[in-house]
Amino acid sequence: MALVTRTEQIQFKSNSVSVLAQASKNLFNTANYIIRQRFFENDKLYQETGEKGEGIWYKQLYSMLKNTEQYRALPAQTAQQVLKLLEKSWKSFFKALKVYAKSPELFLGRPKPPKYKHKDGEHILVFTNQQCKIVNGILKFPNVVNLKLKTRLVDVDLREVRVIPNANKYTYEIVYDKTVSDNEINSSRVFGIDPGVRNIATIANNFGAK
């Protein structure tokens, strides 16, 4: 037996989610402003003195923002996830800078720090398995969302639910763990999907399927 992580996607509209997605954007931008200001201060310090200043990460952001209007506009665990996703974006940026310093030819230009979300835009929401649950095939959200979604999932170990703004709809990604028998997994059979611009996707495999 093996434990695998899978995702089910559902397209849906919801006004209550729209309000929270805007609040997520507000918190993201507020936190991003704090990190960006420290980044530019540290960059100036390094240029002038060669010293490296300390960055601001999740724990500091949480302490600074937990009592603000932007943070409290979201369920606590969802707000925490916004800050953690922002931290992840900045760490990816710094990692890219290190690669750029050694191999600039791999890039079209110097990597840029995470940008602000559009003032009228929205940002991803993440609900943990302590906030959501699946009961008899129905995905239930916290009361603040006021939403229930029908899903084909029943006996699974729910990890989290991601709500991703997508034009005038939202993509709900239900991330879950499931135990499958070993004979359901064949690591020698590889199937790849590459989303495209003109074509929906390019699909290839190593076992001759059409």
UniProtKB/TrEMBL annotation:
Q: What is this protein called?
A: Mobile element protein
Organism of origin is Methanosarcina lacustris Z-7289
